[in-house]
Amino acid sequence: MPRSIARRTIENAVRRLGFARVAGVDEVGRGSLAGPLVVAAVILDPDHAIFGLRDSKLLSAPARGRLHDEILRRASAWTLTVAEPFEIDRLNVHKATLKAMRSAVTTLVPLPDFVLVDGFRIPDLMIPQRPVIQGDRRCAAIAAASIIAKVTRDRHMTDLHEQDPRYGFDQHKGYGTKAHLSAMKKFGYSRVHRQSFRPASLFK
Question: What DSSP string runs through 16-39?
Fold first, then answer.
C-alpha cells in the first residue's frame, strides 16, 4: 500500500482504549487571501472502510469528488463549520480556526468520545483529544475531514468566481498566486478578501 494512503492505525489504537466514536478534524483555507476557512469533522464507521483516503492535496479533483461523496454516504457522522473573512479579520486566523474546529466537533451527532486533530489542540473542548502532526497524511478520519473541507471550499470558491470573475477564484481558490496578486493590485480588495491579510508584494 502506498505510504501516502492514510491508515486507520491511530483510530484503531484509540478504540482499543475504549473510545467508540473517534472523530477526525481538519481545516482548509487557512492561508488563503480570500474566501472562508472551512473545517470538517468526521466519524468514520469502523465496520465500513473507505479505500484511498489521503491528504486532500495529494488527490486529483475528480478523486476528491468521488471520495467526498462516499464519505458523506458511509461516515457515521460528519459536519462542516465555516469562518467567513470578516470573522477571520476580527479574531485573527488562528483563533478563527480553533473556534471553527470546536464548533465542528461539538455539532457532530452523535458527539464523538475522542477527537484527533490535524496539528492542533482545540482549547476548551470537554472531549479527550490528540493533535496529530501531518494527520491528514497519517490518519484516515483526518484525511476524510480534509477531503470534505477541501471539496466544499473549492466549490464555494468557484461560485464566488461566477459572481465576480475578476480575480480568478476558480483557478487559485483564493490563495496568493501571481495571477491573484496581480488582480488584487489592479482591482483592490473585494468583499470576500480578508482585509487583515496584507501581502508585502501588494505594497511595493
Answer: HTT---EEEEEEE-TT-SBS-EEE
The structure's pTM equals 0.94
What sections of 29-177 are H helices per DSSP?
61-74, 85-91, 93-106, 135-138, 140-163, 169-172
Main-chain phi, psi angles of 118, to 5 degrees: -70, 100
- For 95-122, how does the pLDDT look when each residue is reduced to its tens digit (9 = 90+)? 999 999 999 999 999 999 999 999 989 9
Cα separation, 52 vs 13, whole angstroms: 20
Contacts of 8 (CB under 8 A, 6+ apart): 44, 46, 49, 139, 140, 141
Partners of residue 39 on adjacent β-strands: 27, 81
* Structural domains of the chain ordered from first start: 9-194 (3.30.420.10)
The cell 492535496 sits on which residue? 57
The helix/strand/coil state of 50 is coil
The C-alpha atoms of residue 9 and residue 11 are separated, in whole angstroms, by 6
Sequence-ordered list of residues with C-beta below 8 angstroms from that of 103, at least 6 positions apart, any chain: 39, 81
